[in-house]
Amino acid sequence: MKNVGEAPQEELATGERSTRNRVARSILDHGPSTVAELAGRLGLTQAAVRRHLDALVSDDVVEAREQRVYGARTRGRPAKVFALTDCGRDAFDQSYDKLAADALRWIAEQEGGEQAIAAFARARIAAQSGAYRKAVESAPAEKRAEALAKALTEDGYAATARSAPHPQQGEQLCQHHCPVAHVAEQFPQLCEAETEFFAELLGTHVQRLATIAHGDGVCTTFIPKTSKPSGTAETASGTTSKTYNASASTAGRNPA
Predict the structure, then answer these.
(1) CB atoms near residue 124 (< 10 Å)
(2) Distance, CA of 38 to CA of 199 (rounded, Å)
(3) Of 42, 120, 137, 214, which sits 20 to 30 A from 68 (CA to CA)?
(4) Is 36 exposed, middle or buried (0-12, 13-18, 19+ CB in 10 A)?
């Protein structure tokens, strides 16, 4: 049997990561914990637990807090406890991504599954559209992309709107974060539905240049400064309504 000191470096690294994940998972499952509590639950020495906690604190996965004391305080300083940070919780939230992807994959395998996923993607956007519509419709025409960016930021997309690079005439809507990127990587219908919604909301053709799900660093949508509607459609009542097309291109290049 090999001694620990003889194990390959990559094997040790894998073991370290595994134990570190166990420490974080124990805090997730049991709440803020002391070194002694973690050592007892995981069968590790307190020195080993402290070493892993130091690394997790350095990575902003956990943070040290003063333990809350209920009732009369005893002598001495309260024990220090370690709790997950928001960043640490986000790391565990990825399991929900897998659940969502598994569910959509199952739907896709059923008869008519692709159409069902596209319908789901549109329904999901429609359910979230209220705040976006309110923000955009209350803004002047020249500020609508900026208003949409602010509304998206409030939903965690870290969005900005800026002038498109010369010689393009228009704006670029940039989403620097995508909460559903892992799922959208497998189901681009989510990105396509979002692009269609942007076009309908802004009342103009838009072009998706890049997406995080496609491997790009930022989701980028080009919004032309002036663009005529791509077509019209007559409703059952005989009135004419405008229809707009949205390009789902994810080539990651500015339009030529």
Answers:
(1) 16
(2) 52
(3) 42
(4) exposed
Using one digit for the tens of pLDDT, what is the confidence trace for 19-71?
A: 999 999 898 888 889 999 999 999 999 999 999 999 999 999 999 987 654 44
Number of helices and strands in the chain (H, E): 8, 9
Tokens 């807090």 label which residue?
65
Q: CA 161 to CA 175: how far, in whole Å?
A: 9
C-alpha torsion sign, points 39, 42, 48, 53? negative
**Angle (CA) 49 95 98, round 5°:** 150
CA 220 – CA 209 distance, rounded (Å): 5
Contact 248, 188 (CB under 8 A): yes
